[in-house]
User: Which sequence fits this backbone?
């Protein structure tokens, strides 16, 4: 026990530093009100803790009244999202799913929800962050008297974490959780990451790995001379642009999200767009998957509709690849990839989304792809010339203002 | 053709004068007295005729000389496999089986509750002495040699009446086999009442003449007086006789055996436990004959006692006349020839059952014959028409009171006594008729419990391992124990960590321990197939299951709706024992050794209906059991997670974990209790009481375990 206070202090200072750097967050002194303080708890954390405790209190209350304890978890599916035309992003509806403890099919996930809650509480109290995989290992154990584990696989744990997020109305980072980091950035931007000053123009060939949590208490923009952000779909294309020093020539910031961009990348794009007033351009594959990536960046995802507010970038633009590029750029037939039944189905689904439904240009675009009956990847442009995409394709589009909105 | 025949005649004429040569001829009896080599040589001079002659080696005359009567006993001595003496192991079983069947028939006919002693004793050199004694009515002195020393002598062949024995071959054939293989005579002692002496005979069969040959008392047998004097005589001459009923022969307070018969046969045999063994036969006999008490002393000195579970004898089966539908043309002719009746109408009404004068009139009209026509004057063609007419006339089915079924109650009792289980159901079908012969099907089923493999003791296993002649452990397991298939045997061996191919005789003590543990622990029930006990007139059928109508109808029944798994074309699996009894005045066996029932459509139909009747009950029971288990599982699931939930919640808000847990537990109990009385799939409230109707026996599984450990 003697050791603990010492440890605590060092952690406190870290939190203080982080919160100092974020002026919006204030450190609450005298967090001694929490009974067993292991770390000083910020207001934000207090709020999260409060939510957690009230969730637990409901169980106790129900048990005392001999009622069925239950959780009403907002539904995370297409049926429960609404496209807000005014704000131009997806919002979560009011539907909830009731999760009961005394229901055979839900008992286990109820138990898992409570476990995740208790795990997050420990993290917050100790002022530590962990990856969602870390939390999975933290909570995984064999249930007493059985051979069953609380969680068998991480895939069982991840949706439960998302449930807890929507249930408490807290963001993942507020639960002191982060996902694996994915996606890189390079460009004329200087930022402060956890107290370290980082010049994104001097990141060599690797680029700056975008962390999972990019909230102002971790990352602050210091200096930006870039004029726009170019987001590409995956690392290989990003590598091309970086090697050709596209960002230097065109004075921009270059990001990628390794496929569907994780929340960190989307949040950073959102912040750069809103705080630095940079327009966002996306260079994605010409296939349903690419369309959906664009849709997620622009309107927010269906699964995480509750985060659209701080993730969606309604003004993001889609510069390519376009269905017409096969002819426009005179690509060789060998780069075409035939659509399969799944692709066609998905394309029609996307066409039907309310946020695509009334956009004639988009309807035309997707219809053309269906008519072509093939898809194109950005890499297809390499068949013209290795640097065709950086030297011709993107500059032309930007110069012409030829993009989809 | 005519030409050839003529030539043949000529040739045969010449052979009477001139003898033929050739090796074949030499072996046979001399065909003519003047057999000279000179004349043989002269006949060889003509090449063509020599060729003709060599193609014809015998003549009608020479063949006639070797054509003679074949005695029944000679025939069966050569063809012993027809009677079930194909191998030493089966010979022992058949011998005991025939003796026990006869004893039971005799006791039942005399109205005596049967008590039977079976003693099997090894006399060395693959020889065994099998002694079977009953408390039946005994046999008259002059009949004893005929019954035991003459094949095809008996009371059962000529009547239509339900009995175990049919032909009158069995016991005398067993005696003959004994004499043939060991040279020792058959020993018979019989006593007809308390004061009368015991008649004692030592008999051999004269196979040539199918006649008994009495060896003791200068061909007259011996009479042993009742009382102590006789007892000393018996000890002096080594005559075996159990004089007191009950398990313990030394117990002087037990009832004296006042009448009965004992037959002792020494034969070349092999004693082996397991499938198709004497032990199995006696066990199965006890199931189907709950009114019988059996005492069995096996060659290893182990004694087994099956006590009767009922004091009432089965109803006496009645003798009936044949039904017209079951009579073939030839038989009809024979009956007509033999009848004393004057007119056709009289003949029909007196020789057959269910033929009234009115029916007889109908038959005659259909055949275009007069009712009053004399039986003597009916020719071949008319019999033909009569036969057709019989088949075309509607005649009511024969009376079925000639069959004495075991009865559902006794079936349950018998099965419960011998097969441990938790659920029993029985069904007796109403009698039906095949080919004019009444028959009745009874089915009983036992589910659950453990198999022989699981209740085996370490010592018995050791013995079995040393006895067996199978080469691998895997084969040993499959062939020695009922219900162990290849899958189960592999699991057992894996659990015991023994190789499949190990030789059973060579495994060491520790390995036997491991095997024993594995046999007890591995759940054989999973891969276990149904155990089928077949009976015909209360006699277990142990061989040729595949050829038997009973097995076939089990295979053709779909058991899946009744909660058993079954792959196509095979027996259902699960810890199930099914016992099927076919009672009939004439059981249609596929062979003389009485091992399989022939499949007549009527029999198959009754079998199917009987199996379905018990199957439905099993299905109801199993479904309820599954439901009960599901409820238990549901409670379990809640209980399993409650602890975790309580811990997590108290971790978050510092609530008292134990209080919360207790409260949640209460809710869980309430919830599952509600679910217990919940609705079934069709939305009706599920009744707690399971209504399975009559003739079902459900045993508490714990009791089953007790029963087993008691054994």
Assistant:
């Amino acid at each position: 026990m003697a050791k603990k206070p010492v440890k605590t202090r060092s952690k406190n200072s870290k939190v203080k530093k982080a919160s100092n750097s974020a002026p919006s967050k204030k450190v609450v002194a005298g967090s001694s009100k929490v009974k067993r303080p292991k770390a000083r708890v910020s207001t934000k954390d207090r709020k999260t803790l409060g939510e957690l405790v009230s969730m637990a209190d409901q169980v106790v209350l129900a048990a005392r009244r001999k009622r069925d304890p239950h959780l009403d978890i907002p539904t995370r599916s297409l049926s429960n999202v609404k496209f807000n035309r005014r704000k131009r992003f997806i919002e979560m509806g009011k539907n909830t799913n009731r999760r009961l403890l005394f229901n055979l099919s839900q008992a286990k996930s109820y138990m898992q929800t409570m476990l995740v809650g208790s795990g997050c509480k420990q993290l917050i109290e100790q002022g530590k962050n962990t990856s969602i995989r870390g939390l999975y290992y933290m909570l995984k154990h064999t249930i007493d008297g059985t051979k069953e584990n609380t969680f068998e696989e991480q895939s069982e744990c991840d949706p439960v974490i998302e449930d807890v997020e929507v249930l408490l109305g807290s963001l993942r980072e507020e639960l002191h959780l982060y996902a694996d980091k994915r996606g890189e950035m390079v460009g004329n931007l200087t930022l402060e990451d956890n107290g370290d000053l980082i010049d994104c123009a001097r990141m060599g060939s690797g680029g700056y790995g975008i962390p999972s949590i990019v909230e102002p208490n971790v990352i602050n923009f210091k200096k930006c001379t870039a004029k726009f952000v170019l987001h590409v779909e995956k690392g290989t294309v990003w590598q091309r642009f970086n090697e050709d020093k596209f960002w230097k020539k065109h004075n921009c910031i270059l990001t990628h999200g390794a496929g569907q961009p994780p929340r960190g990348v989307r949040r950073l794009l959102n912040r750069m767009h809103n705080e630095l007033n940079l327009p966002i351009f996306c260079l994605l594959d010409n296939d349903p998957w690419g369309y959906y990536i664009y849709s997620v960046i622009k309107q927010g995802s269906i699964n995480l509709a509750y985060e659209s507010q701080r993730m969606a970038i309604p003004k993001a633009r889609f510069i390519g690849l376009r269905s017409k590029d096969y002819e426009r750029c005179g690509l060789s037939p060998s780069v075409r990839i035939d659509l399969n039944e799944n692709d066609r189905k998905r394309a029609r689904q996307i066409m039907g989304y309310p946020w695509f439904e009334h956009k004639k240009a988009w309807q035309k675009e997707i219809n053309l792809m269906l008519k072509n009956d093939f898809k194109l990847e950005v890499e297809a442009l390499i068949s013209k010339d290795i640097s065709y995409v950086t030297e011709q394709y993107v500059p032309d589009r930007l110069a012409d203002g030829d993009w989809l909105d | 053709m005519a030409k050839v025949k003529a030539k043949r005649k000529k040739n045969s004429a010449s052979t009477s004068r001139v003898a033929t040569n050739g090796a074949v001829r030499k072996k046979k009896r001399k065909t003519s007295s003047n057999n000279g080599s000179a004349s043989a040589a002269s006949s060889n001079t003509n090449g063509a005729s020599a060729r003709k002659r060599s193609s014809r080696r015998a003549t009608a005359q020479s063949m006639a000389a070797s054509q003679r009567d074949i005695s029944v006993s000679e025939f069966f001595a050569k063809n012993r496999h027809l009677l079930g003496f194909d191998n030493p192991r089966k010979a022992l079983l058949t011998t005991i089986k025939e003796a026990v069947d006869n004893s039971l028939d005799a006791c039942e006919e005399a109205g005596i509750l049967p008590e039977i002693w079976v003693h099997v004793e090894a006399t060395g050199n693959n020889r065994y002495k099998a002694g079977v004694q009953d408390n039946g009515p005994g046999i008259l002195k002059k009949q004893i040699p005929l019954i035991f020393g003459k094949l095809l002598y008996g009371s059962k062949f000529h009547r239509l009446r339900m009995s175990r024995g049919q032909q009158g071959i069995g016991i005398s054939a067993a005696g003959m086999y004994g004499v043939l293989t060991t040279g020792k005579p058959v020993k018979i002692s019989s006593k007809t009442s308390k004061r009368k002496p015991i008649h004692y005979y030592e008999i051999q069969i004269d196979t040539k003449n199918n006649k008994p040959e009495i060896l003791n008392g200068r061909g007259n047998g011996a009479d042993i007086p009742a009382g102590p004097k006789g007892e000393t005589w018996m000890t002096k001459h080594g005559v075996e006789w159990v004089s007191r009923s009950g398990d313990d022969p030394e117990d002087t307070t037990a009832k004296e055996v006042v009448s009965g018969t004992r037959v002792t046969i020494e034969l070349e045999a092999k004693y082996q436990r397991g499938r198709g063994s004497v032990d199995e036969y006696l066990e199965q006999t006890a199931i189907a004959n709950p009114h019988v008490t059996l005492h069995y002393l096996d060659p290893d000195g182990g004694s087994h006692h099956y006590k009767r579970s009922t004091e009432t004898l089965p109803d006496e089966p009645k003798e009936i006349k044949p039904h017209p539908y079951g009579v073939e043309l030839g038989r009809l002719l024979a009956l007509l020839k033999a009848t004393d009746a004057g007119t056709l109408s009289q003949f029909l009404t007196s020789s057959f059952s269910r033929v009234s004068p009115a029916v007889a009139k109908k038959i005659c009209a259909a055949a275009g014959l007069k009712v009053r026509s004399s039986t003597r004057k009916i020719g071949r063609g008319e019999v033909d028409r009569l036969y057709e007419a019989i088949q075309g006339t509607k005649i009511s089915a024969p009376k079925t009171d000639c069959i004495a079924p075991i009865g559902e109650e006794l079936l349950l009792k018998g099965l419960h006594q011998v097969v441990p289980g938790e659920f029993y159901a029985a069904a007796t079908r109403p009698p039906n008729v095949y080919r004019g012969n009444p028959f009745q099907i009874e089915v009983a089923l036992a589910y659950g419990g453990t198999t022989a493999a699981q209740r085996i003791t370490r010592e018995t296993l050791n013995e079995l391992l040393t006895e067996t002649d199978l080469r691998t452990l895997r084969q040993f397991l499959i062939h020695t124990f009922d219900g162990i298939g290849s899958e189960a045997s592999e699991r057992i061996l894996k659990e015991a960590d023994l190789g499949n191919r190990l030789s059973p005789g060579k495994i060491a003590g520790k390995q036997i321990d491991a095997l024993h543990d594995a046999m007890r622990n591995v759940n054989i029930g999973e891969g276990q197939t149904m155990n089928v006990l077949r009976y015909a007139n209360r006699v277990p059928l142990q061989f040729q299951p595949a050829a038997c109508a009973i097995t076939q109808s089990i295979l053709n029944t779909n058991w899946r709706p009744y909660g058993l798994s079954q792959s196509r074309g095979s027996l259902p699996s699960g810890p199930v024992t099914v016992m099927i009894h076919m009672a009939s005045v004439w059981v249609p066996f596929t062979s003389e050794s009485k091992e399989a029932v022939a499949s007549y459509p009527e029999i198959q139909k009754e079998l199917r209906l009987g199996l379905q009747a018990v199957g439905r009950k099993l299905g109801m029971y199993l479904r309820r059991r599954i439901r009960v288990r599901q409820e238990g599982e549901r409670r379990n699931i809640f209980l399993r997670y409650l602890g975790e939930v309580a811990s997590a919640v108290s971790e978050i808000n510092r609530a008292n974990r134990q209080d919360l847990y207790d409260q949640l537990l209460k809710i869980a109990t309430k919830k599952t209790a509600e679910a217990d009385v919940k609705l079934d799939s069709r939305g009706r409230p599920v009744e707690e009481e399971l209504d399975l109707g009559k003739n079902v026996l459900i045993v508490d599984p714990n009791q089953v375990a007790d029963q087993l450990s008691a054994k």
The interface with chain B takes residues 35, 52-53, 55-57, 59-60, 63-64, 66-69, 101-102, 104, 107-108, 110-111, 114-115, 117-118, 121-122, 143-146, 148, 150 of chain A (CB under 8 Å). Residues 42-178 of chain A form a domain with the Arc Repressor Mutant, subunit A fold (CATH 1.10.10.10). DSSP finds 15 helices and 17 strands in chain A.
